Amino acid sequence: MRNHFDRLLNLEQTDKALPLIYPLLISLGAGALFSLALAPFYWWWLAILSPALLYACLRQRSAKHAFFIGWAYGLGLWFVGAFWLYTSIHVYGDTHAALSVLMIFLMALAMGLFSALQTWLYRRFFPETPLTFAPLWVFFEWAKTWVFTGFPWLFAGYAFTERWLDAYAPLFGVFSVSFVVILLACALVEIIRGRWFWSIPSVILLLGAWGAAQLEFVSEKAEKPLSVSLIQGNIPQDLKWLTEYQDKTLIIYENLSKSEWGRDLIVWPESSIPMFQTDIQPFLLNMELQAKRTGTAWVTGIPYFDVNQSIQNNNPMFYNSIMASGSQSQGLYKKQRLVPFGEYIPLHGLLSWVLPALQNDPSMSSFSRGPEQQSALMIKQHPLAAAICYEVAYPNLTRRNAQNSDFLVTVSNDAWFTGTAGPWQHLQMVQMRAKENGRWFIRATNTGVTAFIDHKGHIVKQAPQDVATVLRGDLPAMQGHTWYSRLSDWPILIFSGLLLLLGWFYRPRQIDVSFKSRR
């Protein structure tokens, strides 16, 4: 039986391994190329080529070598793929350019350990086959959503948003798309090596994507679409929190909104009101009265000071929040996943030197984390599920918030990353969340990319970046549930776990168990 499975999984090792320096350099370059598969470049084929090169580089390697090959891949992946952080650290954080690059390099080294551990486990415990490499990849992408609060970025599945394979997203989520992408990448390597058997599962997966695209999980409700206006204020990040600029910010948003009163919903972006609600009660009351007079719901991002909780805890409780008011509307959503060095500073006393210009920024006031169970915003009898900025990168968090909603809304301030790939990668994630949950996504941002995204993840309308503007749309409420919205990530995680269990049980005797290659 064991020999049969060894032959089926192509476990014979007959190729001569290259010197270690070659796979290290190839993997470093492959990781660096990966981000070009994502927005705004959309060279999707690199999402197959990049992991395919890593898979090939691991051939016949000891677990020790595999660790460093994976680390090289992860270093290239994160240093290039997340280099958009440089703008926020150097330009707005007032950190020296060299130190900013060093910080990104250290972040890439740390995040690269995910890939290093993944490849070490692959060569330490499992046979060399796509059926173990792909599920390990899925588990480590999933781990990035929760280890040390998570940094869920640069997933392989995002490269195929609006591209064929994303049809798996409403069934089993973005991790299932990643699974298919990585399996196809590894199968390509096996086919090139003459293992033609792998063309069969490849064709099946492609046909499966076509079949999944024919399925309809949700439908429009038989009622008038919601007329929505998104206000993009284009407030410069270096001025946004200055006390002397706060009144001008409010005037900009008021003026842009004047022509929109009377529509069903007006949405202002994240922290568009740069003051706590306790400091600006007259303004909020006037806006609410204006909304009620014109029959409009008004949703805005605002820092929220919870007075009652602060008294109870004997500690100030600040939240990054979304508030709904106006005609037939109410609700408050408090952000659950906070951005390290963006909304709070870990080990504040020890690390205050990291971003010196941000220490007195109100947006850095050590925001508190919102509770997990929160009600949706109510907008004219429509439940509106909310996500603030970075939260939309978390698939299961968005899925949980989206339960029993008619629409999804996310507000963001990507001015921190103006002119980089960051805002576009962020938008791509919103598209995937819309596809996973079968709901229209309303995305209001300060500088872009403000957009309406339909329930299939397609961008229907988007505003130009870095201009003050209004984006209007009429959105249908959706009903029904995708498989993913019901089942979460469990199906793909369980399936991946079973494949790994099978691979471990039928692993060949020559599998590396001592950091030394066995023959």
From TrEMBL:
<dbReference type="GO" id="GO:0016410">
    <property type="term" value="F:N-acyltransferase activity"/>
</dbReference>
<feature type="transmembrane region" description="Helical">
    <location>
        <begin position="167"/>
        <end position="189"/>
    </location>
</feature>
<feature type="domain" description="CN hydrolase">
    <location>
        <begin position="231"/>
        <end position="477"/>
    </location>
</feature>
<feature type="transmembrane region" description="Helical">
    <location>
        <begin position="196"/>
        <end position="213"/>
    </location>
</feature>
<keyword id="KW-1133">Transmembrane helix</keyword>
<dbReference type="Pfam" id="PF20154">
    <property type="entry name" value="LNT_N"/>
</dbReference>
<dbReference type="Pfam" id="PF00795">
    <property type="entry name" value="CN_hydrolase"/>
</dbReference>
<feature type="transmembrane region" description="Helical">
    <location>
        <begin position="98"/>
        <end position="122"/>
    </location>
</feature>
<feature type="transmembrane region" description="Helical">
    <location>
        <begin position="134"/>
        <end position="155"/>
    </location>
</feature>
<comment type="pathway">
    <text>Protein modification; lipoprotein biosynthesis (N-acyl transfer).</text>
</comment>
<feature type="transmembrane region" description="Helical">
    <location>
        <begin position="490"/>
        <end position="506"/>
    </location>
</feature>
<keyword id="KW-0449">Lipoprotein</keyword>
<keyword id="KW-0012">Acyltransferase</keyword>
<dbReference type="InterPro" id="IPR003010">
    <property type="entry name" value="C-N_Hydrolase"/>
</dbReference>
<comment type="function">
    <text>Catalyzes the phospholipid dependent N-acylation of the N-terminal cysteine of apolipoprotein, the last step in lipoprotein maturation.</text>
</comment>
<dbReference type="InterPro" id="IPR045378">
    <property type="entry name" value="LNT_N"/>
</dbReference>
<keyword id="KW-0808">Transferase</keyword>
<dbReference type="GO" id="GO:0005886">
    <property type="term" value="C:plasma membrane"/>
</dbReference>
<dbReference type="InterPro" id="IPR004563">
    <property type="entry name" value="Apolipo_AcylTrfase"/>
</dbReference>
<feature type="transmembrane region" description="Helical">
    <location>
        <begin position="20"/>
        <end position="45"/>
    </location>
</feature>
<dbReference type="InterPro" id="IPR036526">
    <property type="entry name" value="C-N_Hydrolase_sf"/>
</dbReference>
<keyword id="KW-0812">Transmembrane</keyword>
<feature type="transmembrane region" description="Helical">
    <location>
        <begin position="66"/>
        <end position="86"/>
    </location>
</feature>
<dbReference type="GO" id="GO:0042158">
    <property type="term" value="P:lipoprotein biosynthetic process"/>
</dbReference>
<protein>
    <recommendedName>
        <fullName>Apolipoprotein N-acyltransferase</fullName>
        <ecNumber>2.3.1.269</ecNumber>
    </recommendedName>
</protein>
<comment type="similarity">
    <text>Belongs to the CN hydrolase family. Apolipoprotein N-acyltransferase subfamily.</text>
</comment>
<keyword id="KW-1003">Cell membrane</keyword>
<keyword id="KW-0472">Membrane</keyword>
